[in-house]
Amino acid sequence: MTQIVKKDYSWISPLTTIGRSQQVVEKIVLNYLFREVCFISHPQNIRALTSQEYKAIAKSIDLPVNLIHPVISKFLVNLVYFRRFLRSYSFTYGYTKSLRKLQIYLHKLHRFAPIFDYPRAKENARILKNNLEKHCFLPQFTTQLAVVVFVTDLNDKEHEKKIIQTNLRVFCNCSAYAFHRTRNKLGLK
């Protein structure tokens, strides 16, 4: 009897076959997700994506679905936990006023979803704090996070398409009213 020996290629990860690292794939997928797909249902709840949406994302960024699905599903699950944390934690006045705390949370957001330029966001946070002091206006901490990420993305020349505002507000756990009120107060378009 002859036996056919199959070669075992299971040790080769799909990432090595396409020549990209895990962080690069996550950055590409999450950038596309934030800029092209609204992952929010009507009452500001996070929804799961359909299989057609996964296929459309895979087709548009030229990556297999089996790489995209775990990245997006892991991100959406972690986003639910992160939003619960932001809702349950009460930020005090001193905490909200601190530039250093804002930069720390920007770093956390960037590590969680690298969709904006972090060094530029740190500088934008400093500028935002100065403008808020001039206007004698101090919005909620999460609103400040959302505005800094919005301004950083607005001035970003690397991406032609901007982040969907609904995705950004849910990502930072900021209400639409507070976000637009702060934008109007600062004169942002």
Structure description:
- With 189 residues, the chain is mainly alpha-helical.
- The chain has one domain (14-186).
- Helix content is 66%, strand content 0%.
- α8 runs antiparallel to α9 (165-172) and α8 packs across α10 (176-186).
- The radius of gyration is 20 Å and the shape is elongated.
The main β sheet shows up as:
none
* Annotation, overall tally of beta strands: 0
Overall number of domains: 1
Which whole number gives the mean pLDDT? 87
Helix/strand/pairing category:
mainly alpha
> What general form does the structure show?
elongated
Share of residues in helices? 55-70%
Radius of gyration from the CA trace? 20 Å
What distance separates the N and C termini? 76 Å
Low-confidence stretches: 8-12
List the helices and strands in order.
Answer: HHHHHHHHHH
Strand content: under 5%
Number of helices: 10
Q: What is the topological layout?
A:
Elements: H1 14-18, H2 22-36, H3 51-61, H4 65-88, H5 93-97, H6 99-112, H7 118-134, H8 141-154, H9 165-172, H10 176-186
Q: What attributes characterize this protein structure?
A:
mainly alpha; 189 residues; elongated
In short:
By secondary structure, the chain is mainly alpha-helical.
